[in-house]
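Weekly modeling sync, notes
Attendees: AB, CL, MP (scribe)

Item 1: holo prediction request
CL wants a bound-state model with fe (ii) ion before deciding which constructs to order. AB pointed out that an apo prediction alone won't tell us much about the pocket. Agreed to run with the ligand included and paste results into these notes for async review.

Input as submitted:
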Amino acid sequence: MHRMTKPALMFFGDPHGDFVPVIAAVERFQPEAIVLLGDVQARQPLHVELAPILDKTAVWFIHGNHYTDSDADYDNLWGSELAHRNLHGRVVEIAGYQVAGLGGIFRDKIWNAGRPIDEAAFASADALCRSMRPEVRWRDSIARRHRSSIFPEDYLQLFLGPPADILVTHEAPAAHLYGWRAIDELAEALGVRLVVHGHHHRDIDYVGEGLLSAAAPFRAFGVDKGSHLAWERDPQGETELGGVPQDLLDIAVQVLGAKAQT
Ligand SMILES: [Fe+2]
């Protein structure tokens, strides 16, 4: 039996408005920080939803595709006091790890990521906005829907930026049936050893399920709605790319939601 330690980080699958599992897990495991993997859909401003745990952990998030479903979904995220905790398009040091974030999804009308990036219809939100007549804009900019689309500019900002230890995404890597090679390429460019994604509502240990080779440069996990993945602090800070220690993997699997307990 592996000793239970407080995880450095916990990653939560798409809440879709239900924060009970997030609050319960934070109170039980007491992680240093948490990351919501998109589709938050808070019914009140996010800092109100998570008020019981705001003094217990540091809250971070990426956005998903459903945060643009309604004005309320949008405003309860971006109007929240936690809006500045969005990881999209940047690398932030969290609990001792450099964590990169790519929120949103690939949409063909912006960039079909199965095609080369220079063939994207619009390179940036600004480019899309310039193509729109003022009367069809939403709040003086692009349509609400496309505020959850991934633009090449967002992707390249990460791709060409500093290295990271962990990449959190809403979209899945290529090993997923609906995943994207562009996610793998980003992970490899950043040099991360862990990719964690939401969106598909299933707990997936890609190496454990034989979807990804153990020799791959990074481990990958999908996290289900209502579930979580915990990541322990690297005690030595010596973990090398592709060489995640077994004890880290043990605890990740140990607390990978309810399914792992069986
Ligand atoms: Fe989603």
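Recorded for review: The CA atoms of residues 229 and 256 lie 5 Å apart.
Action items: CL to compare against the apo run; MP to circulate these notes.
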